[in-house]
Write a structure and sequence with these properties.
The protein is an alpha/beta fold. It has 19 helices and 16 strands. A five-stranded parallel beta sheet has the order 2-1-3-4-5, with helices on both faces. Strands 7-10-13-6-14 form a five-stranded parallel beta sheet. Helix 10 crosses helix 12 (298-304) and helix 18 crosses helix 19.
Length: 457
């Protein structure tokens, strides 16, 4: 693809010199000698990036940038600054400029900034397409994503929702296991019946038993009246048992009986109560390991794990981060009465590069903080929590000490492929390896399709 750049500067020699260099670098270039002429060319032409002087007669570079961003949010604008105007250029970046360069211009530095800005422009359009895809996935409500991993989750949900099978949802804390459970219920024939949730780790064994099965008046100290349990309340619908790996052996036996016989007695009661409840359980533990340790009953595990849905951590579905960011900005901006409609690409890149050990829950908290701190209509790096502001270079990859050479290679290939938006030819060029070598490595590390490029260069 041949990108078309617009260079605006009232100094003829500088303007023509930049145009000649950029043309020789492989871009199509058009020029304007002032902001008014530049604005007309931007409106009339197919422009991919603007390089503009800061101070010009008539429309200034900052004013022109504001017009461009109002017309095309996320559009890359690079500001050229003279002596004594760097503070103004920095302020312009807070208002949405991609970057700035001081005069005299370092051409190699300019070339690098142009290349990165155009790559992020392509990524921006990809994000917009993903946002539109998000609107088409309303049937899954708050499950946000369009990555291969999350599409596989959608497919699983569609397959199991209409059945009566018990479901075990596994995955790290914060990945959205409850959202998956809720989606299964909403797509099932039980959708008009109750969806009842119990957090098994939040209650002691005694209280959890009462919570699940209810109790009769006087069955224990403080039982001043009869109370129905969650199984009764969920009858006809779905009961979601979160952190099922935390319940003790005695309660596991009682739970197994309900799953097998679909009946139970309240705590302190003699009357047998029959229920029709679909069970969906979730855990962040390895239940097979817990069985080996003697902490979890194998027969209960098999009853719960008729179908297993593994929800991947956010670091394995990074393509979903832009959609999640967009959703959280919209949610928290509305909640806090703010008019925030975008995030600067540099801030987005910082978030994309992070591994998110706390998964979606951590990203959600991060974006709430950013929205609260933001004082304009665009979130910038300065609005992010301190850990993200201190990052020195968006192009670095973090690798844990002690990682094997093969793991290091896998991480570098994965992150470079992600940076190149899945384009294998670009990835191979950046890594300075042959395309066939890259395809072999992708197969070796199970990093996705080894077919032709699925993203246009």
């Amino acid at each position: 693809m041949l990108f078309r750049l617009l260079v605006i500067d009232d100094e003829k020699n500088l303007r023509e010199g930049l145009a000649e260099y950029l043309h020789d670098t492989g871009y199509e270039v058009v020029c304007a000698e002032n902001g008014e002429e530049g604005w007309k060319l931007f409106n009339n032409g197919d422009i991919d990036l603007v390089i503009t002087d800061l101070k010009m007669p008539g429309i200034s570079g900052v004013e022109l940038m504001k017009r461009i961003l109002a017309h095309s949010p996320g559009f890359p604008v690079i500001i050229l600054t003279g002596h004594g105007t760097i503070d103004i250029a920095v302020a312009a970046m807070h208002q949405g400029a991609w970057d700035f360069l001081s005069k005299p211009v370092d051409l190699d530095h300019l070339s690098l900034k142009v290349k990165r800005a155009l790559e992020n422009r392509e990524l921006y359009f990809k994000h917009r397409q993903m946002e539109e895809e998000l609107e088409r996935k309303r049937q899954f409500k708050s499950i946000i994503g369009n990555s291969r991993n999350i599409r596989e989750i959608f497919d699983m949900i569609n397959k199991v929702a209409s059945t009566k099978a018990s479901i075990l949802i596994t995955g790290e804390s914060g990945v959205g296991k409850e959202l998956v459970a809720n989606a299964i219920h909403e797509l099932s024939a039980r959708k008009d019946q109750p969806f009842v949730k119990v957090h098994c780790a939040a209650l002691s064994s005694t209280l959890l038993e009462s919570e699940l099965f209810g109790h009769e008046k006087g069955s224990f100290t403080g039982a001043l009246s009869q109370r129905r349990g969650r199984f009764e309340l969920a009858s006809g619908g779905t009961l979601f048992l979160d952190e099922i790996g935390e319940i003790d052996q005695n309660l596991q036996i009682k739970l197994l009986r309900v799953l097998q016989e679909k009946k139970f007695e309240r705590v302190g009661g003699e009357k047998t109560i029959e229920v029709d409840v679909r069970i969906i359980a979730a855990t962040n533990k390895d239940l097979k390991a817990e069985i080996e340790k003697g902490n979890f009953r194998e027969d209960l595990y098999f009853r719960l794990n008729v179908v297993n849905i593994l929800v991947p951590p956010l670091r394995e579905r990074k393509d979903d981060i832009p959609l999640l960011i967009t959703s959280f900005i919209k949610e928290f901006a509305q909640e806090n009465g703010k008019s925030i409609d975008s995030i600067h690409e540099k801030a987005r890149s910082r978030l994309y590069a992070y591994d998110w050990p706390g998964n979606i829950r951590e990203l959600r908290n991060c974006m709430e903080s950013a929205v609260v701190m933001c004082q304009s209509n665009m979130i910038t790096v300065d609005d992010l929590p301190p850990a993200f502001r201190s990052t020195s270079d968006d192009g670095w990859v973090s690798i844990k000490l002690g990682s094997s050479m093969s793991e290091c290679e896998k991480i570098i290939i994965r992150e470079t492929l992600s940076h190149c938006q899945g384009n294998k030819s670009k990835t191979a060029d950046m890594l300075e390896i042959g395309r066939k070598t890259l395809l072999r490595k992708l197969a070796e590390y199970d990093l996705g399709s080894q077919e032709e490029d699925d993203v246009s260069p």
